[in-house]
Model the fold of this input.
Amino acid sequence: MRITLLPGQRYDTIGVAPLIKGVEFHGLIADKAFDANWIIAELHKRGAKIVISQKVNRTAPLGVDREIYKWRHLIENFFCKLKEFKRVAMRSCKTDSSFAAMIYLGSALINSR
Done:
């Protein structure tokens, strides 16, 4: 798992480039927040399958595999489980490194169950 901590007032899409840099994958499942032309162009360049729910103002809608998109609930469930850890949910860590460490620790505990 890779994470990138972002300021709360920034768009989520700015964290995509550092996360996918140097990583080989065959598809990306994401919600409407990640419906950006540059992300879709990067996925096309890599030959990855695009499974992103699109914004209503997209001029040329892309085909989305609805069966694969249903798997997105697993990601949402993971974040709900991660927020059961009080220090993650309350963001009570003072530094970014300690907050990231709590996310990794919580993730490891969730995956070990």
